[in-house]
Amino acid sequence: MSLRLVISSIVAALCMACGASAQTQSSTLPNAPEPQSQSESRVTIANTPRHILSDQAAIWTSPAHLNPANAAGPALLVLSTALVMTTDHEVMANHVPIDASLNSHAVTASNGLVGGFVAAPVIIYGLGRMHGDGHATETGILAGEAMVDSLAVDEVLKLVSMRERPDVNGSRGKFFQTSAAFDSSFPSTHSMIAWSSAAVIASEYDGPLTQIAAYGLATGVSAARVLGREHFPSDVLVGSAVGWMIGRYVYHRRRNAEE
Q1: What is the C-alpha separation between 213 and 81, in angstroms, rounded?
Q2: Average model confidence (pLDDT) across the chain
Q3: Disulfide check for 161: which of 87, 99, 186, 208 has CB 3.0–4.6 Å away?
């Protein structure tokens, strides 16, 4: 369990400031690089690469700023992940059926839903451009930024964790297995993408129906990854939490930056 707790702690530390940002409505992370000019702070496609680099600098330096005042979120994530990990093998070995048809349909559903979360910002942005709606264009750009940020964090964590997939080695989910490499099970990429996109969309359009739809579909992605036997429950828990935190950070950091 100690190695697993190390992985969980890494994830929680990386997300510390994102979680604090989402809970306190803060617009910045500790030591987040500030835009150099008003034009550079505007939410535009041209400025997005610069913003992503700024996001990554803030995310990867955030563990240095853990203190008693902002450690509650990371501590909760570590404890929750550690608890769920103790049940991973039991759940996958005895409760998630090995049924080729069911598993395949679950994987197909998760892929389709994630495709929707990727396409939605593009469609929203396009409609915003067509109708001169700055709110819609901002939503599309920020959702895209959040997904790219999530993918960058996800790939690093996969390389660090190197966890076996549920269909390997009797669903033991061992970490630091070089055979896993880029195909590491931890965390769930699908969950990260879905929840980061959902967090921005649900924050920009915060009506109850939008929030229920966005987060409900994101939950569907996470559940389908387990039902499809592509991930352990702890993989989707961490992927969902990290994706949500990054999406909320991007929204609070960038929203209305052009005004």
Answers
A1: 26
A2: 86
A3: 186
At 107, phi and psi to the nearest 5?
-65, -45
Query: Is residue 259 one of the residues assigned to a domain?
Result: no
In a domain, 147, yes or no: yes
| CA dist., res. 186 & res. 161, Å (int) | 6
Residue 88 belongs to some domain of the structure: yes
Cis amide bond preceding 187, omega within 30: yes
pTM of the model: 0.86
Gap between the Cα atoms of 192 and 246, Å rounded = 9
Name the residue range of residue 88's domain. Answer: 2-254
Q: Distance (Å, rounded) from C-alpha 246 to C-alpha 82?
A: 21
For 90, other C-beta atoms within 10 Å of its C-beta total 10
What SS3 state is found at 82? Answer: helix
Exposure of 237 in the CB half-sphere (CA atoms within 13 A)? 18
> What gap in Å lies between CA 180 and CA 161, rounded to an integer?
9
Higher pLDDT, 28 or 66: 66
Q: What is the dihedral of CA 205, 206, 209, 212, to 10 degrees?
A: 110
C-alpha pair distances (Å), 146 with each of 154, 182, 193: 12, 21, 8
Q: Looking at the 3D structure of the chain, how many domains does it have?
A: 1
pLDDT over 80 at 20, yes or no: no
Predicted confidence (pLDDT) per residue in 182-215, tens digit: 799 999 999 999 999 999 999 999 999 999 999 9
